[in-house]
Structures are given as C-alpha cells and as structure tokens.
Amino acid sequence: MSISVFAPASIGNVSVGFDVLGLSVKPIDGTLLGDVVSIVQADKDSLSVIGEFSNKLPGNVKDNIVWHCLTLFNKAMAQAGHNTVKLALTLDKRMPVGSGLGSSACSVVAALEGLNQFYQQFNNTGFNQKKMLLMMGEMEAQISGSLHYDNVAPCYLGGMQLMVPDANIISRDLPQFDDCFYVMAYPGISVSTKAAREVLPAHYNRADLITFGQNLATFVDACHRNDKAQAFSVLTDVVAEKYRQHLLPKFIEAKQYLVSQGCLAVGISGSGPTLFCVVDDEAKANKFAKWLKINYLQTETDGKNYGFVHVCKVDNQGACVIENDT
Ligand SMILES: Nc1ncnc2c1ncn2[C@@H]1O[C@H](COP(=O)(O)OP(=O)(O)OP(=O)(O)O)[C@@H](O)[C@H]1O
Ligand SMILES: N[C@@H](CCO)C(=O)O
C-alpha cells in the first residue's frame, strides 16, 4: 500500500494578521505549488528527498523536518496505544526554502497528513484534526523558533484561516473573495524566518497598536460581509513590513508600481521574500505577473535564478491525497 499527499503554499500574515492570519493558494495553470510526501510500507524507516529544491535542504535526512514528523507521529501513536510499521518516505521538495510561501509548513503538513491517511487505511487508526494541527504547530515551531500557525493551518485546512486563542478550536475558517487573484512573486533568494523575526521590534507604539487592531478587525468584518473594497482598503501591515522590506531587494519599487496600476493590495508573503499582489481581474493579474517576472526576480549568489511568478486563486482544499495505491 502506498499513499502520496500534496500540501499547498500559503501567504502567512496576509499583511493585517501577523502570526494569526493565513491564506492557502494554488496557481490557476494547475502547477503543483507545494510539497508532496509519498509513503510506503518497508523493512526499515527511511527518507529520500527529491525535487527541484532538494539540494537546499540539510544533507543528513535526520535533520529534515519530515524525519522529525515521522518521529513525532510514531511517538503519538505509541502514546495512543496504536500499532505502527516501518515506512519508506519520499519528500518531493518542490518549494524553495526561506521563500515566504510556507515551505517548511508544506513539508510538515504533507508528512503528517500522509502518515495519518496511511494509518487510517492501514489499521483504521490516526488522529483528529485538532491533534493534527497541534502536531503541525509543534513541528513548525521547532524549525522557525516560534509557535505560529499562519502557514500550517491554511496549508492543512485550505482557505483563509484565522488563529484563535482557544486550544479547542485553534483555527477558524474565514470567508474570502472567490473572484480575487493572488499574484505570487518569489524572487529566487532566501530569507530565513528566524532572521526576519529578529529584525522586528520587541515593543510597538500605541498608534501602531491601534492601527493594527483596527485593520485586522475591519478586514475580518469585511470578509464576513463580503465587502471586498473595504477589506482590501485596510490590508496594511504596521507590524512587520517596514522593518523587513530592506531584506527584499526591489520590494518598495514593485509595491509603488503595482499600487499605481490599481491593484487591490500588495504585501510580503509571510516573512518574505515573496511578494503577493491582489487583483480581481485576470487580465490585470497576468499583466502584473509579467511585470514582476522582469522587475522583481533576482540572481542568487551562485549566479542562477530560482525565482518564479504564479497567478493564483485561493486553494479551498488544503492538503489532499493525490495518489492512493491500496
Ligand atoms: N523539509 C524541509 N522543508 C523546509 N525547510 C527544512 C526542511 N527540513 C529542514 N529544513 C530547514 O528548516 C529551515 C527552514 O527555514 P525557514 O523557516 O526560514 O524556511 P521556510 O519554512 O522555508 O520559510 P517560509 O515559511 O518563509 O517559506 C531551513 O534551515 C531548512 O534547511
Ligand atoms: N508569521 C510568520 C510567518 C513566517 O512565514 C512571520 O511573519 O514571521
């Protein structure tokens, strides 16, 4: 028996909800923007890493977050009194590391959901959604140095997710705007989440605190009322963007251009360097994607260009089984 699970890219923060809001996205051309983990029963536990961005990961597979997911999952199964078997895992690392697209979250979600789906079919065991989210949060915290669900929750559940301070709920699905396009521009350079958190101030002034609360509350209210104009008029980040934008070459110029051309909003996806731009017109989305390809992509220190631009919509499905051979 073998199973493959895909976990999609996501926009952490969505500008107004630092650490508490996230949106899952999928390219409209059908590209699989996310990681895939495949699992098959074997004589011993193993992990192989393949894919375009596999060479950016630790050389020792035991340092790969997917291996840690297997260890954590097996421990939880033992604690619950469930049997486990030896497994061969393959990670297809399709997501660039340190991209702001929730790359580690994609690996964590694909691995844990893959294991859960495997055991549900293998011996009718496994865990509920809440336990799964808790394990995903624990793995994401281990890798990025702080507990935040704004990538793992949308990646796992799909749609737009608002993290709530209630351990019994963790994440709430927010209504979002089906006619919107999210142009995602990954410039091809890496920004570590840890480093991008270290540049943030430890304290914020009262004016920023009030603006933050007002923007997030207005955005959530507008989503519930399906008021697109109001929602995107307040999509402004006073917590991270001004402190991080110097880590993103050409971000300020790109934002200025896109805003001048009438997009609904522009922001940093997660901790960057990916830029996201929201529009409700496909022709405009394609035009901006073309512009970003020419003007936002960078050359890495090895002289190569790893960047890409995708026109996306919201991925309402989240993690899903893409192959199931029983
Ligand atoms: N399967 C994996 N996927 C991604 N990163 C991994 C994985 N396994 C180990 N790592 C390590 O975890 C760290 C991830 O760093 P970081 O949190 O900055 O990246 P990220 O999750 O890709 O960022 P982002 O959420 O902005 O896309 C890197 O040092 C990377 O080598
Ligand atoms: N909310 C996190 C997302 C990291 O991808 C941050 O901005 O640091």
Automatic annotation (TrEMBL):
SUPFAM superfamilies, sorted: GHMP Kinase, C-terminal domain, Ribosomal protein S5 domain 2-like
Gene3D superfamilies for the chain: 3.30.230.10, GHMP kinase, C-terminal domain
PROSITE patterns: GHMP_KINASES_ATP
Molecular-function GO terms, alphabetical: ATP binding; homoserine kinase activity
Enzyme class: transferase
Record-level GO BP terms: threonine biosynthetic process
UniProt pathway annotation: Amino-acid biosynthesis; L-threonine biosynthesis; L-threonine from L-aspartate: step 4/5
GO annotation, cellular component aspect: cytoplasm
Keywords: Amino-acid biosynthesis, ATP-binding, Cytoplasm, Kinase, Nucleotide-binding, Threonine biosynthesis, Transferase
InterPro entries in UniProt: GHMP_kinase_C_dom (IPR013750), GHMP_kinase_C_sf (IPR036554), GHMP_kinase_N_dom (IPR006204), GHMP_knse_ATP-bd_CS (IPR006203), Homoserine_kinase (IPR000870), Ribosomal_Su5_D2-typ_SF (IPR020568), Ribsml_uS5_D2-typ_fold_subgr (IPR014721)
Annotated ranges, domain GHMP kinase N-terminal: 64-159
Coiled coil residues, start to end: none
Record: residues binding ATP: 96-106
Family: Belongs to the GHMP kinase family. Homoserine kinase subfamily.
Protein name, entry field: Homoserine kinase
Record organism: Thalassotalea piscium
Gene designation: thrB
